[in-house]
Amino acid sequence: MAHVQTTTAHGGNFFTGFFEGIFNFLVRISEANSRVKEIERLNSMSDAQLEKLGIERTDIVRHVFRDSFYI
């Protein structure tokens, strides 16, 4: 039988939690920025180029966020 722990121990240090929060925020910003760049790159392609990739223009956002949102 497997046991899974869903909580994390921070040791109660204010600074650890504070800097961890800032780090997580910066990671989210960088991930969002790379996705926006990918959307812009795909939008700049012609319909023929998108067709070769198997993507319709209306599905670009869905394609870029396919691992985050199950639409």
From TrEMBL:
<keyword id="KW-0030">Aminoacyl-tRNA synthetase</keyword>
<keyword id="KW-0436">Ligase</keyword>
<dbReference type="GO" id="GO:0004823">
    <property type="term" value="F:leucine-tRNA ligase activity"/>
</dbReference>
<protein>
    <submittedName>
        <fullName>Leucyl-tRNA synthetase</fullName>
        <ecNumber>6.1.1.4</ecNumber>
    </submittedName>
</protein>
